[in-house]
Amino acid sequence: xxxxxxxxxxxxxxxxxxxxxxxxxxxxxxxxxxxxxxxxxxxxxxxxxxxxxxxxxxxxxxxxxxxxxxxxxxxxxxxxxxxxxxxxxxxxxxxxxxxxxxxxxxxxxxxxxxxxxxxxxxxxxxxxxxxxxxxxxxxxxxxxxxxxxxxxxxxxxxxxxxxxxxxxxxxxxxxxxxxxxxxxxxxxxxxxxxxxxxxxxxxxxxxxxxxxxxxxxxxxxxxxxxxxxxxxxxxxxxxxxxxxxxxxxxxxxxxxxxxxxxxxxxxxxxxxxxxxxxxxxxxxxxxxxxxxxxxxxxxx
Length: 300
Fold this sequence. Notes:
The protein is α+β, with helices and mostly antiparallel strands. It has one domain (4-287). 62% of the residues lie in helices and 8% in strands. The protein is built from seven helices and six strands. A four-stranded antiparallel sheet has the order 1-6-2-3, with helices on one face. A hairpin with a 4-residue loop joins β4 and β5. α2 packs antiparallel against α4, α3 (78-103) packs antiparallel against α5 and α4 (105-132) packs across α5 (147-181). The longest helix is centred in the C-terminal third of the chain and has 41 residues, at 186-226. The chain starts with a helix and ends in a 13-residue tail after the last strand.
């Protein structure tokens, strides 16, 4: 907001809330949106299940080929089994890609991004109203404010999720080939394939947690800085999953443009919510001298 008179008006309106002080901490404690992580995880789990179904349909072909090859004692014909493995996994990949075209991954992630935006707007309005006693313009954050950031997040996450099945299939193909050359049983190879699938699925779930945290933090930072909020109080989730280094930051005040050290060993710095798998949130510290809210003015 750049309207000087409006800025001065909102500062004058909220001044009594500061009781003569320059800064005022949020009176609302916000929490990490675990429900959005669960929704993202549901999307990735369904997506990866499509891959598992294609694997279940095609792997018997490889087992039969390996069995026949072993019975014929064709130890010098590794190239033929390698070709079968390559062809089979190529079929799996193509069938999986056909299924995912109907899945609508981009649409689902775009919808999730918008769910996050709506939640953060509602949360931010509540924080401002209960702390400063004023309302934010209803449509201020629904236009172009987040548009580019949400589109970029959606595109990045589509790319992230799509790489997981590709890497998983490549890993599985190598597992099958190595297992055949080493003379391992089909059962042993099958177990390793399922473990590779599990790794891929867990990686997708990690992305779900990490990317929702980053989106949550980026929207929070954008809202606060747009309103002239330069500092925040680090607030952890307060459960056993909070790492010690983040628990040590809980309740401390930091600037958005000067992230704290989140790893003493490496000296790595990150704003709240931007460290990997961070579920902490930043509670705004309002400053009467920099406050610049897109408030909804009401004339009595």
